[in-house]
Amino acid sequence: MKRKNEKYFYWAFLFPSILAVSLVIFIPLLYGIYTSFTDSDGYNMAFTGLENYRRLLSDDQFLHSLWFTIRFAVVSVIGVNVIGLAMALLVTQKTGRLSNLFRTIFFMPNLVGGIILGFIWQFIFVKAFEGIAQLTGLSAFSGWLADTSTGFWGLVIVFLWQMSGYIMIIYISFLNGIPADINEAAAIDGANTWQTFWRVKLPMLAPAFTISLFLTLANAFKVYDQNLALTNGAPFGSTEMVAMNIYNTAFFQYQQGYAQAKGILYLLLVAAISLTQVYYTRKREVDL
C-alpha cells in the first residue's frame, strides 16, 4: 500500500513539470510543424503540403542568411573557445585576489543583456570608430556597420566579447579538477609549460570542449538581438542572420506558414550539427 501511494505522489509531483514542458515546448513544436505545411498568415490557414519547403530552395535571401549565419557560427565558436581557454589558463596560473578580480572582469560582459550590449557596441562602432578615423585619417575605422564585411566582424567581436568570459568559467572548473600530482609528475619528467598543457592538460579538457562547443554553437546559431541592434540586416539584408530572416518573414511579411518551414529546417540543421559535434567530442574524452 505504501509503495502504491509513493507511485501516486511521484506522478503528482511530476505532472506540473510535464504539463509546463508540454504547453511551452512540445505542443507549440507540433503546431509549428503543422503550420509549416500551410499558407498561414496568422489569421487564415490552408493546407499546401510541401510548397513552403520547395520555396526554400529558391529563396536567395534565406540561403544567404543561412550561409552568413554558418560562417558567423564557425568563426565565433572557434574564437570564443580559444579566448575562453586562454583566459582560463591565465587566471588559474596563480590564486589570490588579483586572479579573482580578473575572473570577475572577464565574466562581467556576460551579465549585459544582448539588446543593450548591441546598442553599446553600435555606439562604439559608429561614434568611437568614426572619431578614431577622423583623428588618425585611417579609413578602416569609418563606416564599420555600413559594410557587409566589417559588419560581419562587428557581430563576431560583440559575440566574442560577451561569451568568452562565460566559457572561461567552464574551462576554469575543469582545469581546477585536474589532479595536482599529474602536473607535478609532468614537471619531474622534464616537461615545460607548453608540453604540460599540450600533452597533459589539453586531453583532460575534452569534457570541457564538449560542453563549451555545444553551448557556443547553440548561442551562435540563435543570435537575433545583437543582429537587430547592430546592423538590423543592413546593408540590403547582407548581414541578416537566420533568426532575423524568420522573424521578418513571420511578422513583417505575414507569411507565418513559410516562416515555420524555415524554422523547422533550421531546427533540424542546428540539431544535426550539435549532435554530431557532441558525438565526436565525447569520443575524445579522457576519464580523470
UniProtKB/TrEMBL annotation:
This protein's UniProt keywords: Cell membrane, Membrane, Transmembrane, Transmembrane helix, Transport
Source organism: Desemzia incerta
InterPro entries cross-referenced by the UniProt entry: MetI-like, MetI-like_sf, UgpAE/MalFG_permease
Family stated for the protein in its record: Belongs to the binding-protein-dependent transport system permease family.
SUPFAM superfamilies, per database record: MetI-like
Domain ABC transmembrane type-1: 66-277
Taxonomic lineage: Bacteria, Bacillati, Bacillota, Bacilli, Lactobacillales
Gene3D superfamilies with a match to the protein in the record: MetI-like (1.10.3720.10)
Membrane topology annotation: Multi-pass membrane protein
Protein name according to UniProt: Carbohydrate ABC transporter membrane protein 1, CUT1 family
